[in-house]
Write the structure tokens for this entry.
Amino acid sequence: MVASSKAAWGENPCKNTTARGILRHTIDASTTSDRGTATGPIIENPLHGERVRFLKTVPETDGELLQYESWLAPQGSVGVPHVHPVQESRFLVLAGRASFMVDGHSLELGPGETLTVGPRTPHYLWNAGDSEAHLIIEFRPGLLKQEYFETAFGLARDGRLNLKGIRNVLQYAVLTAAYRNESRPLDQPRWAHAALLFLAPLGRLLGYRAHYDRYCTRPAD
């Protein structure tokens, strides 16, 4: 499912456009009334050229949403093509251009344009332009998406990830099990996903974690 969302970003629409059945919504980004304030440092994923700063966290919204700023370098991407099994994701472009592939449809958003992607909808985001893209992104419900980002970005900074994924299969298994409601790569066969879930208890037994205090701002449950 791909749709626009007026209420999520304020009440001042400029135009609506439809391409290939995908509804895009354009607003004056400077008037957005639902934008939170920064709650922590900017974290970086050097592998994909993305920086993130959280604006609204799960504790602040009673689990309803996670909202954050994303700065995406030229030719950078947000991971690999994937789905969110439970969460709806929303994107507002503040500056630059953002390219999307959503359920087989290709589109590009500019400043003030928004996009909503429903749960279980295949999608991918990258920056095909020559300048940095700046977005506000939301996930509803928030679940453990903040911890997912903090852990994945931290592992990337420490050289424990590469562009093909997690270097250690047991670490990958633990992350897959812990964050299976947050994200799943499209190129992962069902048998591989099941095998990772099977290996996760062994990974935890050997000391691999999905939540590391050195990366995460909230303590582990």
